[in-house]
Amino acid sequence: MREKFIEFRNVSFRYGDNEPWVLKNVSFDIYKDEWVAIIGHNGSGKSTIAKLMNGLLYPQEGEIIINGLPVNDKHVWEIRKFVGMVFQNPDNQFVGTTVQDDVAFGMENRGVPREEMILRIEEVLKAVRMEEYRLTEPHRLSGGQKQRAAIAGVLAIKPEVLILDEATAMLDPRGRKEIMQTVAEIQQQSEISLITITHDLQEVVKAERVIVMNNGKVWDEAKPREIFAKKDELRKIGLDVPFVAVLADELIQNGIMIKNEPLD
Ligand code: ADP
C-alpha cells in the first residue's frame, strides 16, 4: 500500500466572509511517489489548492494533512520545508545573479553547509539538464530554461513534493515539452511526489492520476485515459481533449488500433 502524503478532507475555502466559496467540500488523497495532475478551466480553484498545500492560505472548513501534519500555524514552517513550488512566471522567481547563485539561495536560507551546497548544485542542474548554464545570468535564459533553473532551485532544498502551478503556461510548445519531460524524469528517478496544475489536458497524458476541478468541486478523479474517454463532457466544462487522444480513440473505434495498446 502506498503511503498518503497529502490529504484534503472536506475542504471549503473562500477569500473573505462575503466572498463566494471557491472550493466546496473538496476531498482527495495524494500518495508518496505519485504524479497527480490537477486540471480545470480558469477560475476552477486550482491555484487556491496549490496555496492551501503550503499554508499560504488556510481553509475555513475541513482539514488538510501533509506528511501526517495538519496544516496550521504550528506546523506550517515544518511543512514548507518539504513542499517545493514552481509558479507560472519564470521572471518572478530569480534572486541570484547567476543560475548557480540562484540555486544556492534556498539552501543558504536553510543553512546547508558549503560543501553540500556545491554537490547539490551539480546534482540538481544535471537533473534539469542545465549544467552548462551554471554561470549564466538568469535573464539570458529562454522561458523554458528559466523554469528548469527554478525547478533546480526547488529540488536543491530536497522537497518531498514538487508542485508546478501552471509552470508551463507562459512557455512556447517546445519549452512546455522540455519542462514536462524534465519533471517526468525527476519523478521517475526519485521518491518525490509530483503535482502538476494545469488547464491544458495535453499535460496530463503521463500523470498517473488526474483530478479534474470544476467550479470549486472535484468533478472527477481517474487515470488520464479514463478522463480522455469523457471528451464530450470535458468540453462542456471548458477542457479540450488533446488531438492525439481523440485520434487514438477513433483508431480504436475503427479497429485500426487495439485497445489497451499504450498511447505513447
Ligand atoms: P484557477 O487556478 O483554477 O484559475 P483560482 O484558484 O486562481 O483558480 O481562483 C478560483 C476563484 O477564486 C476565482 O473565481 C478567482 O477569481 C477567485 N480568487 C482567486 N484569488 C483571489 C483573491 N486573492 N481574492 C478574491 N478572489 C480570488
Biggest sheet features = 6 strands, mixed
Number of strands: 10
Output the CATH class name.
Answer: Alpha Beta
Summarize the amount of helix as a percent range.
25-40%
Question: How do the strands of the widest beta sheet line up side by side?
Answer: 6-7-8-3-9-10
Calculate Rg over CA atoms.
19 Å
CATH superfamily, called what? P-loop containing nucleotide triphosphate hydrolases
Q: Tell me the β content.
A: 15-25%
- State the secondary-structure class: alpha/beta
**Ligand inventory:** adenosine-5'-diphosphate
Subcellular location: Cell membrane
Domain ABC transporter: 6-240
Membrane topology: Peripheral membrane protein
Organism: Ornithinibacillus halotolerans
